[in-house]
Amino acid sequence: MAPRNTVIFLLGLLLSCVAMSGAARILEEEATAPPKVEEEHSPHLTVPELPPLPKVELPPFPEVHLPAKPELPKVELPPLPEVHLPAKPELPKVELPPFPEVHLPPKPELPKVELPPKPEMPEFHFP
What is the CA radius of gyration of the chain? Predict the structure, then answer.
């Protein structure tokens, strides 16, 4: 069963390679071909000038008087009932073993590296 799947996969891979090479060849031919001469046409369409729009005056905005807000009566909420929850259970204390001490060797000192002086950039002025 596995060799058959492998053969199908490789055949599909081969077909995709053939299709890609054909597409690449067509693109290459189009890129190297001389440009087609198109019919001459005007670069911009001529648009006739439109007459200016008439200025329109709007009627004055009417004043709006809203009625006063009615006062809402205050509502007294009943007191919240007391809730008695069971006591929180005590969790057993867990003692961890002591952390082992680790003695590491001292860090080796690295030699100090001196860099050569930075070359100066030549000045450049635009003509």
Answer: 44
DSSP letter for each residue of 15-83:
HHHHHHHHHHHHHHHHHHSPPPPPPP--SS---PPPPPPPP-PPPPPPP--PPPPPPPPP-PPPPPPP-
**pLDDT tens-digit map of 39-87:** 555 566 777 888 898 999 999 988 999 999 888 888 999 999 999 999 9
């004055």: which residue's tokens?
A: 60
Tokens of residue 47, six digits: 């648009």
Q: Is the pTM of this model over 0.70?
A: no
What is the rounded distance in angstroms from the CA atom of residue 108 to the CA atom of residue 114? 19
- Per-residue pLDDT at 30: 84
43: which 2 tokens? 């670069």
